[in-house]
Amino acid sequence: xxxxxxxxxxxxxxxxxxxxxxxxxxxxxxxxxxxxxxxxxxxxxxxxxxxxxxxxxxxxxxxxxxxxxxxxxxxxxxxxxxxxxxxxxxxxxxxxxxxxxxxxxxxxxxxxxxxxxxxxxxxxxxxxxxxxxxxxxxxxxxxxxxxxxxxxxxxxx
Length: 157
Known about the structure:
It is elongated and about 65 Å long. The chain contains nine helices and no strands. The chain folds into two domains: 18-28 and 43-98, no CATH class; 101-151. The chain has 157 residues and is mostly helical.
């Protein structure tokens, strides 16, 4: 049965925020489809920020926490930029991620590939995978070359 009473924009925004964190730009974009001529989305966003219900810093922290196990700093930064997060918040988040980028890339690689690449094609495939996850080429080279050295047969001559 369909509800005949229309929800106010404020109610919709609160419902959205009760489910998960949003960046200010992302919430504003979601609300545009429901806004009438009398609705003032920027004022609503400012009110929510003032009350502490909406925070780009909190959103950034949550997003980094959720994504860091699977993705590199470049991918996380790209996603935050797409959601309208301020560049200074992104820079702080990325700086924290880059501290352990190699360890995270190694863990992502280990989950996907059980053994080091033995051919150039396999190496390229593994590199493309890590690149798609947002890891830098320097980190990718470190991971793949280290595993290639670890798995190389010993010289018994």
